[in-house]
Amino acid sequence: MAARRVEVLAQRTVYRGFFTLEEVRLRYERLNGAMSEEMTRLLFERGDAAAVLLYDPQTSDVVLVRQFRYPAWVRGGPGWLWEIVAGMCDAGRSPEEVARAEAMEEAGYAIGALRHIMTVYPSPGACSERIFIYLAPIQGRVAEGGGLVEDGEDIEVCTFPLAEALAMVARGEIMDAKTILALQYAAQSWEDLKAR
Fold it and tell me: Are residues 17 and 60 in the same domain?
């Protein structure tokens, strides 16, 4: 599909802190080729993130982490979510660098070759964030993990058989989208992952 026109008429920063909130006035090219009416949208700018599903090809186990997530709690959810290791691509770090660093900080694992499986927009109606999702075999637990205290992290690390993690998805015990995507990909590709 050919790129369609977008006209940004005005943009202002509404909030700048842990994330940035921008108010934008714009028009875009409609399906019929005409330009839309002017509209105002809010853009939640969080930056990009990297996430990695750690797995053991010998045992069919996967490593998940659990920590408190206020936005999940406030909507009546569990608050403490099982997730794959993840972090923000800040300070000029590449997604691969972030994936490796977070594997160590959050879970305490040294990892092998990263395999990029997909890049997703978790909430494209409001947020510009992209998440680069990887799989990586573990090479051994070399640190305690648990996150960085100075960042307010208090992370539980647990290993599950892949089949149990998938059953947790089916039971609604794993609700994080990036984690579900990575687990489903791993299940479909398990023979290939073991061979590597």
Answer: no
pTM of the model: 0.89
CB 26 within 8 A of CB 7: yes
- Tell me: do 146 and 56 sit in the same domain: yes
Average pLDDT, the chain: 91
Tell me the mean pLDDT in the region 156-181. 96
Boundaries of domain holding 39:
6-45
